[in-house]
Each structure stands twice: as structure tokens, then as C-alpha cells.
């Protein structure tokens, strides 16, 4: 039976709060999703791979992900893993944005040096968690006014988070080890040439490195294979183009697939739906699911 990243249904898909604790947890694959995500770490000593960067993760760190951010958490064995997550459909909160306050600013208006990670002080973490718990309380009941309160609390959270990111002076963290220094140019090259043929032989020749050594260090540093990374980057780019109403046949060529059949099969394997189904669902402005591994 073919395995793909099954989607997990969530009753209120416009906005949801999640609190997970796991004594044994692994994120076996990269993932991305149509919703925007705010991730609050309660467990430290981890690492987060996001697009072409590796971030350290410590307690009270805040991360934000949009629909194009490919990410995967790395957790040492035996670690009790706790996190608080907010997911929301950007269309849900769009009508609360104003000319001077864009609630989605830190998710969509990003420069080349944007840092997904924001370490919070104890006081900032306490403020954030107070708002998170307030939102969570409105999720548990269906009283008169709860739907309004939920949107108000989300707006407050987004104002708070955007202010933090606007004031953030942290530089992009880099793993200063020799192996990561070798693969970072490769990650950048893949992202810049995702529409091209990117075989292991081609990458090895381009960077003057054995393809076997390339595969070895790539897997050791990131936790996944070169081909996995290339395929997921292609699919992310494809979802972006499908949302812009490009034809499936056009998108297939634009993201580097050999033919439409291969593109459709791979897309469905990863997302569980065909490119055409995805394009149609994006036109309705509905987000009906998120990935299981949050």
C-alpha cells in the first residue's frame, strides 16, 4: 500500500490550538501545510530544519511557518517532547487587517535574512501563553460570542507576535560545523534551480564532491535524503503555482518533473490529492486539513 502524508481532519479548520506531549516522538518526513503555524517550544535541546536552514530549539522559542515553509523537527531519543501550536487559515483573519496593521506581516513579508526563530524572555513567554490559554478556552465551548472572542484573541496574538518580530535583532543562527558548511550551498543551489534536472550526478559534478559522500553528509546533517528534499521543494513550488491558476501541465514543467504522469503521481503521494483537486480546493479559500505530524 502506497504511503503518503495523510491529512488529519480538524473540526474548526479556520483556527485551532494544539497542545501535544510525547514521550517518544519522531518526525520521519519533511512537511508543509496550507495553514499558517505558530510553534511555541516547551522542550529545548532540539533542532529545526526549515527550508535551507537549521535552527537550535530551546524552551520558550517561538517559530512561525507559512504555507511555503518546508520544515522538520529533530528530537533526540528518550526526550519528552512538549509544544504548543496555533494553526489558522490566513483568510480567516484577513478582514481584521487594516492599512496600518497587517496581521500577516511576519508570515508573508520576509526579507532574505528573515529568521523563523524568536527566543522569548520569561515575561514574553508568559504573556504569549496567557493568550494561548484564552484562545484554547474558547475552543472548548460553543457559547454565544465564542466565535467572536476566538477571532479577537487570534488578532491579539498576531499583533503581539508581529511586534516581537519587528523588534527582533537576532541574526540567523548557523551551525558552524564543517559538514553543514558543505551542504548549505547545495541547499541554496537546489532552491534556485528547482525547475532544472537535479540528479545526484549533476550535483556531485557541480560541487566537485562524490555523490556517495554528498548523500552521506546530507542525510547526517538534515535527517533526510537529497532526493526527498528535492521532491518536497518541487511540490511546494507546485502548490504555489497552482494557487496562481497555472495549468497542471504548465506547473509540471515549471517545477522540473519529467512528465505530467510523474508529477501527478508524486503530488498525490505527498498530499493525498491530485494537483487538479488541490487547485480546485484552493479556489474555494477553504483549508480542510493539516498534516498529522505537528
Inertia-based shape: globular
Strand content: 15-25%
Q: Tally of extended strands?
A: 10
Q: State the share of residues found in helices, binned by percent.
A: 40-55%
* CATH homologous superfamily label of the largest domain: Regulatory protein AraC
The CATH architecture name of the largest domain reads Sandwich
| CATH fold call of the largest domain | Jelly Rolls
Provide the number of structural domains. Answer: 2
Q: For the terminal residues, how far apart are their CA atoms? A: 24 Å
Q: Which stretches are low in confidence, meaning pLDDT under 50 for 5 or more residues running?
A: 1-12, 284-292
Radius of gyration: 20 Å
Per DSSP, the total helix count is: 11
N-to-C series of helices and strands: EEEEEEEEHHEHHHHHHHHHE
Mean pLDDT: 85
- Side-by-side strand order of the widest sheet: 2-8-3-6-9
The level-1 CATH class of the largest domain: Mainly Beta
Largest sheet: 5 strands, antiparallel
Helix/strand/pairing category: alpha+beta
Amino acid at each position: 500500500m502506497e504511503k503518503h502524508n495523510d491529512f488529519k481532519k480538524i473540526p474548526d479548520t479556520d483556527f485551532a490550538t494544539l497542545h501535544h506531549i510525547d514521550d517518544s516522538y519522531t518526525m520521519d518526513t519533511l512537511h508543509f501545510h496550507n495553514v499558517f503555524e505558530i510553534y511555541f517550544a516547551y522542550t529545548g535541546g532540539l533542532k529545526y530544519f526549515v527550508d535551507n536552514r537549521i535552527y537550535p530549539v530551546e524552551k520558550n522559542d517561538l517559530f512561525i511557518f507559512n504555507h511555503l515553509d518546508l520544515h522538520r523537527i529533530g528530537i533526540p531519543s528518550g526526550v519528552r517532547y512538549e509544544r504548543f501550536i496555533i494553526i489558522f487559515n490566513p483568510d480567516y483573519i484577513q478582514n481584521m487587517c487594516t492599512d496600518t496593521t497587517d496581521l500577516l506581516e511576519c508570515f508573508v513579508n520576509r526579507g532574505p535574512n528573515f529568521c523563523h526563530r524568536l527566543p522569548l524572555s520569561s515575561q514574553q513567554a508568559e504573556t504569549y501563553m496567557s493568550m494561548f490559554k484564552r484562545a484554547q478556552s474558547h475552543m472548548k465551548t460553543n457559547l454565544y460570542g465564542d466565535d467572536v472572542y476566538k477571532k479577537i484573541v487570534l488578532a491579539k496574538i498576531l499583533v503581539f507576535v508581529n511586534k516581537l518580530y519587528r523588534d527582533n535583532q537576532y541574526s540567523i543562527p548557523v551551525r558552524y560545523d564543517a559538514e553543514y558548511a558543505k551542504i548549505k550551498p547545495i541547499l541554496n543551489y537546489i532552491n534556485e534551480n528547482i525547475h532544472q534536472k537535479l540528479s545526484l550526478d549533476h550535483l556531485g559534478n557541480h560541487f566537485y564532491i562524490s555523490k556517495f559522500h554528498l548523500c552521506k553528509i546530507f542525510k547526517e546533517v538534515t535527517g533526510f535524503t537529497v532526493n526527498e528534499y528535492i521532491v518536497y521543494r518541487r511540490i511546494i513550488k507546485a502548490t504555489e503555482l497552482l494557487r496562481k491558476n497555472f495549468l497542471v501541465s504548465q506547473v509540471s514543467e515549471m517545477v522540473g518533473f519529467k512528465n505530467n504522469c510523474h508529477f501527478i503521481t508524486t503530488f498525490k503521494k505527498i498530499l493525498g490529492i491530485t494537483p487538479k483537486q488541490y487547485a480546485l480546493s484552493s479556489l474555494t479559500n477553504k483549508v480542510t486539513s493539516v498534516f498529522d505530524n505537528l
